[in-house]
Amino acid sequence: MKLDAETADPKDKVLRLYFGESNLPTPDYIKRAAVKAMADGFTRYTENAGLPSTRQSIARYYREIHGVELDPEREIVVTASGVQALNVGIRSTLDPGDQALALTPAWPNGSAIVRMSNALPVEIPHPLAGGRYEIDFDALEGAVTPRTRLLIYTSPSNPLGWVATESDQRRLLDFARRHDLWIVADEVYERLYYTERLGTPAPSILRLATRDDAVMVVHSFSKSYCMTGWRLGWLVARQDLAARATQLNEFIISHAPSFAQRAGETALLWGEPTLQEMLVRLKENRDLCLAALARIPGVTVPKPDGAFYLFPRIEGLADSMDFCRRLLVETKVGLAPGVAFGAGGEGAVRICYASDKPILETAMHRLAGFLAANKSELSLR
Questions:
Q1: In terms of C-beta density within 10 A (0-12 exposed, 13-18 middle, 19 or more buried), how is residue 45 classed?
Q2: Model's pTM, two decimal places?
Q3: What percentage of residues in the chain have a pLDDT greater than 70?
Q4: Domains of the chain, with CATH numbers?
């Protein structure tokens, strides 16, 4: 039988929980802003760093959300997606033969871009201690060499849902300052943060860094505003790095689409009510899946504080790629193998819970059944 998410019979659909995006559409007010922008003539080239109005909107966002003052002309670069921000940021700091430290398990694109720069990523796994992931600072210290140039980390984390505390960020800043390293902070999921007061952003390292620190922050409109297909993001960085990233933009994509930039401005200005609604839904989905996984023997999953992923570890699992392949073929539940997220990822799977409750309930039921049927093979008790 063809495994097609669009088959006519719902029970034959693949439950696609391997994707890193919400199943919600882009809100209509953002779509209307793009249509208006095109009608208003925003269909031509912009500056490599992006429209001045878009950079001003991003600066206003940081002022209102984080209490951080940024220079929109010299410290902000609009990019065609978050991964493009990651790309120009990393490529602006590395020479062939350099090394970059990367906290993992993590979205693999950071390490991949390091390799594309003819540099070497050195992955440092997050240890799990007391039900929470931590940073192994001893391992970081031991990994530094004369060729180490930068440190990449993600908070909130894809795939862990871990969120760096202010204490974590202070120690990372101190580490980077002592070793003269750049920090690349992927904060794409910062608004998907589950505190008692939903809508509070996850801590940004920009709150602690000075404007002279070698810090860059990668961000995107994709997750908070359901704009994955729009390919729109930004980079915040020290003036010298931002200038290099702007030049590099010219040779890769020139600039982000002008009408998409205008739509992004509207998202930042009017997006809070829709974001709040999505956060309520995501928190309910997270708790539903956590409760279901807690009932399955041999499965351990820390409660994530952010993003929209769970990263359960399965006792006895040695080949997460084969596990996910078999789960897909036999139950039509699609999960992402933990091994895809680098060092420390094997033995786990990633579940994206940004879907509808009936889909998640069905997926958790099928996963539980599959694990029960294979418990002897996986050494589950």
A1: exposed
A2: 0.93
A3: 96
A4: 10-26+273-373 (3.90.1150.10), 28-270 (3.40.640.10)
